[in-house]
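User: Please run a holo structure prediction.
Assistant: Happy to. Please share the sequence and the ligand.
User: Here you go; the ligand is adenosine-5'-triphosphate.
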Amino acid sequence: MKFSAQKGTKDILPSEIYRWQKAEQTFASVCHSFGYEEIRIPTFEQTDLFARGVGDTTDVVTKEMYTFEDKGGRSITLRPEGTAGVARSFIENGMTSLPTPVRLFYNITAFRYEKMQKGRYREFHQFGLEAFGAEGPSIDAEIISVVDIFFKKMGLENIGLRINSIGCPKCRAEYNKLLKDHFRPHIGEMCEDCRERFEKNPLRMIDCKIDGSKDIVKNAPRLIDYLCEDCKAHFEGLKSELDALGVKYEIDPNIVRGLDYYSRTVFEFVSENVGTQGTICGGGRYDGLIGIMDGPATPGIGFAMGVERLLIEAEAQGKLPEKPSHVRLYVAAMSDAAKKTASKLCYDLRLAGIGCETDLAGRSFRAQMKYAGKQEIPYLVVIGDDELANGEVKIKNMANGEETPVKLDEIVKYCQDNIV
Ligand code: ATP
Ligand code: MG
């Protein structure tokens, strides 16, 4: 029987892994430059954590979770996102008493039972971060600038930032009444999900993938026009901080993250290149989340970025990195005695951190040269009986054909200085 990868999953092969590694390293280094530290959370959690922490009216929780009973009869879910797990860990590990803001970043796989499309998979990857304990708009601007700087470091341009405010429970209660009055006469024309949202969480109707393009949704009152004074000041504060940083944005009143514990700032980074799945990164403030998970009331904000979508964007912009050559030197050996010297040389080179290869397959000298060429190894050294007798070799730069004589016992030093 032949096995194949499950629908919606993908192997990341050596031929493309360096793109991922470049993105991972760049993200980590940008996060570090702001004082964010990495956290690694488990792949699965108890199902209730997501029902509560993501919200049981969201598509993610109602339709997309990989949930199963384990052998101990517990309901387990593969994480569909990172925030709930990080928030759990933050509370469970006493991070609530650390000096604020507590800055955490992560790089995870996430699982959602979704219909496969370009940029939409069942197992996918997210870079994200969470900042706990800071209330004012400066941290909102900070996390947005993490994404902005990250894109710049990846060489990406023109990924549109859209921001919005969805207010606080106070302004939203007023607004929900208005929204329900607006939708009530038309509720019969709305999709089944929206009819349920109308009862439980009308704000989510704005975000509906089915009804979202209808006039009735487009003409709905906008929460941004009904913010309370505090929420308005927060949003104005964010805008002026972004202006001061020179980070460009558009205000998009249709971005919602319609859960009770999401509040104020929400934002997305969107690109045309990723097709209909245009959102590369989404984030927002969740001042109620830690409280709702029975932790001490703590403001929080974060974002998550789809790494597959990021790489689709990098490819579309022609900004994928070059494949690095980890193996810098090929050591060709022309005799059995030379092979021994070659093996020991490779050992010493690797100990010094220099990537190299020598033949293990019993190839002829010609076949060794062919192999080294095919692997595009940038430097070559040939060891034969003459070289052993003289104690000197030539190191050849394959790109320009230049040869440099080097003493056998000085090869490691030469390579450290010249070919790493
Ligand atoms: P969408 O509207 O595209 O379904 P979402 O609102 O469900 O996105 P979030 O929960 O905000 O997405 O996740 C943050 C980011 O993770 C998204 O902006 C996207 O880049 C990525 N993402 C979400 N779901 C998937 C998926 N199934 N496959 C690949 N990437 C995904
Ligand atoms: Mg989704």
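DSSP finds 15 helices and 16 strands in the chain.
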